[in-house]
Design a protein that fits this description.
The protein is an alpha+beta fold and 156 residues long. The chain has 2 domains: 2-45; 51-154, Glutaredoxin (3-Layer(aba) Sandwich), CATH 3.40.30. Helices cover 51% and strands 15% of the residues. The chain has 6 helices and 4 strands, in the order H-H-H-E-H-E-H-E-E-H. Strands 2-1-3-4 form a 4-stranded mixed β-sheet, with helices on both faces. Helix 4 crosses helix 6 (143-154).
Amino acid sequence: MKKLAIVGAVIVLLFAAIIALTNMKNSEKLKDNPYGTNDLNQSTIDLLKDENYQNIILPDALAEKIESGEGVVGYFFSPECMHCKSYTPKMMPIADELGIQVNQLNVLEFGDTGDAYGITATPTMIYFENGEEVARLEGAAPEETTRQFFNDVVLK
């Protein structure tokens, strides 16, 4: 019985140590995060330092850009979406190569905003001009389709 109590105590201590280390690592990642809050889903925290997710925009800032009338690319993604995880690392280098600013909105953190733009699946990229939606690209599109969207719609 005594051995069982010792083993149980060791297991509890190991779990406590794992939780403490995870919290320390998360608090380090959360410093100066673009979301303006530390109350984020773990999958979002895991993307904070990912080079492909450095153009995060908050819902109010995106709405303001769209309302300004300038051409705006909104990219609606979820860090838990397997299609987003495979598409974003392919799409962002193309956007960078073409000099296109892609404003990334995390619908996991801001789900109501996705609803406001009619987002039914992720990833979804929408190009806005003069405050209106011009075109959208849904799903993990092939590289050629992404290039065509950027060239024919955004850079036209």
